[in-house]
Amino acid sequence: MEGYDAPLEGAQEENLNPDDLDAGKGESNSVEEETRRIFDLYKNKRYDWEIQAREDQEYRLGRQWTVEQEKTLKSRGQAPIVVNRIHPAVETAKALLTSNRPLFKVSPREDSDTRVANVLNNLLTYMYDISDGRTEVRKAVDDYYVCGLGYLMVYQNGQADGGKGEVMFRSVDPFDVYVDPNSRDRFFDDAENIIVSRIFTKAQAKKLYPLYANAIDSASGGEYTTDQIVTGNTDNTGLKFPGDETTLEADTYVRGYERYYKIREVAYRIHEKWSGKELRLTQKEYEAYLNEEVGTLGDQVFEGEKIEQKKEELGGKRDQLLKGAADQIDGEIEKAASEMEVQYMEKEKELQEMVDLGEVLPERMEHDLSNLREQIDKQVKDAYNQALESAGQVQNIPNVEMKVKAGLIKEGLIEAIPITITKVKMCVVVGETYVFGRVLPSSKYPIVPICNLHTRTPYPMSDVRMVKGLQDYINKTRSLIIAHATTSTNMKVLVPAGSVDMVEFEQKWAQPGVGIEVDFDMGQPVVASPVPLPNELYQNETTAKSDIDHQLGLYDLMMGNSQSAPQTYKATISLDEFGQRKIKSKLADIEAGLVILAKVAIPLMQELYQMEKVFRIVNPNNSMSEYAINKRLYDDKTKEIQVFNDITVGAYDVVYVSGSTLPSNRYAELEFYMEAYKAGLIDKQEVLKKTEVFDMEGVLQRTDVIAQLQQQLKAATEQLKKLSGDMQTLTRENVHLKQKVEVEKFKTSLDSVENKAKAAGTLFDHRLKDQMGLVEKEVRDAAKQASKPPSASNGAAKRK
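The structure assignment produced for this chain is given below.
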């Protein structure tokens, strides 16, 4: 019973009902009588097993000779020596099976709970850490090997975490657990009752159950029965077990009982068609569920804050319609009426001017103004009617109708199917007083057995019981060898009667260089020496030790015997891996129990951790991870408070990562990861996880900085190369440009010379043409002069 705490205040309100916990009401009288009757029955049925299991414990701890055997050996002159081979073998097996922290894999029943399942993985690791899990599992494994049965129990510790409570587990002494003898299941799931009982003082009981101190004070002790188990083996080591100590007269001792049994409860499976949710409610939860109010709007159903949000939305629509109609009447209609009135006055003035000028008759003016007035009045009236019609649409906006969920079940929007579920109920009885009882949220017993050689009874056999004969053989062989050695070193002499003075002979026999008077007439003394022991006897002892190791699944190499190791490194690793295959059969028993432990722990966590909680776990590489559960966050989009990592809902399956507790060769594992890293299959962070580097995060941060600087240097080098290339390109382009400029200048000079040459040629042509023209004129004039008659020319000359 050690380690159990009372139910947490505020954590399970239905389980803390005073009607259920009051020792003087309801079923309390029958429960405590029935519990004591069942305890006496179960204790008598397991008498043979507990004698054998206690003897197994004594064998493991060195108490291996009975009183009769010890007397017989001493009478023969042999020492009742113990060569304890069982203890180191059990310790080696414990070390192998509990080398590392167990790993669990929680998988959700629905895909939406994947993130929460990952948090539950780490929450189980957190439970292992705060419970000092390695120590508790080692105790259970020790009981598994020695007694054939180890126990781990899950419980809610109300005093942990400053009174907030924690789900923890611990080992239980198998002699304190009494199981239904008719159970056949390996984990006692079919047991009608499981009782945890031990004797303690009332002061101890009040520390275990501080909420029920008054009930414990009033408890009567009843008939006192001891838990001492007597096997008949001799005690030369001062070995003590629970129950061996005598009681203290100043204290009042009582026997406490924690009885666990399964009950059938009526529950209801609920399916909400509008949301698709499926719920499983107890009778009290179902009655409260029926009275819950929801809002309905046609086929739509609203719950919680969504009801007020929908009401506000519909009210806003009504207000918007009414405001729009009022704005239309006060604004647009009156403005339009004023505009049309001004138009009417302008038309009236225009027609009046036309009447004054005689262009229009007064009757026409009155007729047109009357028609215009009718049109204006009609338009204003139609606008008012349209605005009023819009305001009347407010009546068409429906209201949210409030209903209880019992009405929705009648309407068919909720399906409610009654079912029966199995729950475990715990009752605590101290002495003859019923203290309290509560219903646990799990269908499995919180006390998880780990059976070794299961015989389909609650009384499995242990490996120690299987090798006790070998241990006796080793002890007897070693005692015989020592007795032979003693005899060999103490020579026996057969002397004829009367040949020597026996007193003088015995005094001087062990003294060197001393003469002893002997009468050989009576016969010659004879030295009697023992027959040498055969070498096979020594070999048999070694074989027996090896057989014990093999029975427990151990080999010399696994215990560090270098003589059994091969010559090569790879062969040693392979042989070590193959050697663990036999002990994995034992590991499978322990892993199965740890899976049940996790499955029981999850509903206890869901029941206890209702508020926001932050927890931290230390990773194998000494880094720390932080997680938060039931964290409430406000969603700006939906205007709702949502729960992040809500573990209080959902169903989950648990799988154990097989072999996670076995030892591993660190160097071989690191070599494997390094090869994978070199091949680019993993990153350096995964490699560092397999090392013993304490500051992994610091190393990663520094290596990241170095990598960043290397990348920056590489980028700067590339940039420098690029700029150098660009500079060379620009230099070449600059030379080319200069050459091009020079060519262009030369081309310009040539063009100037060419232009001047062309201009000179053109000018020469023009001058040549002018001279040719003058010559042609002179020629023409000369030709004309030559063509005239001479007389005429002479007469003219004379007249001149």
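Interim note for the steering committee: The first strand starts at residue 104 and ends at 108. Residues 302-397 form one domain.
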